[in-house]
Design brief:
Elements lengths: L5 H8 L31 H14 L4 H4 L4 H16 L9 H19 L3 H10 L4 H4 L7
Helix pairs in contact: 1-2, 2-4, 2-5, 5-6
């Protein structure tokens, strides 16, 4: 296992907002093609830390405001919420924060769809493919 910094270890040991929610209004689950983690299950330290940080950073914020700006700005902003807090992430674990952002976007897309806010749902869904570039970080160059 790669060496993890203290911030990641702390959020892994004491994650925030990790629990099952009965009858959630929106939920997303992804299987991470890079490492095989299912983000809903939070299977590795960096994924747990990423989810912990993201939920803390977005708590109390208006979700529609998090979706303002260009696609690139939104994705960068969401990724930055996690990575600025966690600091250096081992290159082989750089796929974990994007998985957290992806499951967040899937969750809010479903929530907005259930609420009949189709424009916001489509906006969130459209951002999901933008995350794919972040999964490529840390891959070994040939």
């Amino acid at each position: 296992m790669p060496e993890l910094n203290e911030k990641i270890k702390e959020h892994f040991r004491n994650p925030h907002n990790v629990r099952e929610i009965e009858n959630p209004e929106g939920m997303g689950t992804i299987d991470n093609a890079v490492c095989g983690d299912t983000t809903k299950l939070y299977l590795c330290a960096v994924t747990i830390a990423s989810a912990s940080v993201l939920t803390e950073k977005i708590r109390g914020k208006e979700i529609s405001k998090l979706l303002s700006g260009t696609d690139e700005e939104i994705v960068k902003r969401l990724m930055s919420l996690i990575e600025t807090e966690l600091g250096e992430i081992p290159p082989v674990k750089l796929h974990c924060p994007p998985a957290t952002v992806q499951v967040f976007l899937e969750s809010i897309a479903r929530y907005f769809e259930n609420e009949g806010k189709n424009e916001l749902s489509l906006r969130a869904k459209r951002l999901i493919p933008e995350i794919s570039e972040y999964y490529k970080r840390g891959e070994e160059k040939e």
